[in-house]
Amino acid sequence: MANSNAVSLRTRVTKRPAAHAGATANPRVLPVSRPGRCAAAAGAGVFDQVDETDPFLSIDVFRRHGASIPPHPHAGCAVVTYLFPESTTSLRSRNAQGGDDTLDPGDLLWLEANCGTVHDDVPSDLCKTVRGVRLVVNRAGRHAHGAPEQTVLRAAAMPHWQAGALDLTLVCGEWDGRHVAPGDTAASECVPDEKPTTLLRLDWRADDLRALTIPCDGRRWVALVAQGEAALADHALRADGGGVEALLLPPGEWQMAGREGARLLLVGGVPLDEPVVFRGNFAARDEGDLINLMRRYQQGSMGTL
């Protein structure tokens, strides 16, 4: 929008980033690829350098109209699906071990694939549209054992607040003293032990410019724009035509600006600092482990739908 009062999308660093072992000194755009991606997946895709994005293996911002995702396997990872509130239908999500949940707009599904499962997604109304984001979080070598489990976090349990022209929603995890995790019925319930994997949604009601403080707490943070136009730490991020850029954010205070209607997603998680091979929805410790997972799937050991 062009007017004399519009906020400039040119940003700058407002102070030096906090010291953090293993973190990059400055934010930078992440190289990504989209091998085998369907047209409905318009997000960042699979990260090319997963050692730098650890524990995140991929992020997909999706928009599907009349399309189901047929049964497919997952193993050695957590698959996190969040439906944006403006989705016009719900999404049924099943796994081969009996998990069967329906996500309404604004809900989140957390699937711990563990040793392996087969999973599918079917919109309740194939004539309507589902929009959202899907994260794949590494569990290879640490959480690859045990039966698959899926948990739903309802939109009503997610904290919402405002800062200037920003609407913020803590979809899961922990941010600035607020806590919510899959399975929690109260948003104020604290998450124990290490810092949890976090998804924060920021929506601009109007053009606005303000600071974003990334905590120095052991989590690694990735930001991307799901819709509209924004800028963060002197990097322009645009979602026009489905081309979403991902930005790796080290701890510190960074300036961000957004246009009215823009949406920024911020994800953070504790790195595993372990080798990983991610291929075909399987996260494995090495090539031998990957072959074993593929063989188990082919033999039907992960179940069927």
From TrEMBL:
Residues 203-302 form the Pirin C-terminal domain. Residues 50-134 form the Pirin N-terminal domain. Residues 1-28 are annotated as: Disordered. It comes from the Bacteria. Belongs to the pirin family. This is Pirin-like protein. The lineage of its organism: Bacteria, Pseudomonadati, Pseudomonadota, Betaproteobacteria, Burkholderiales.
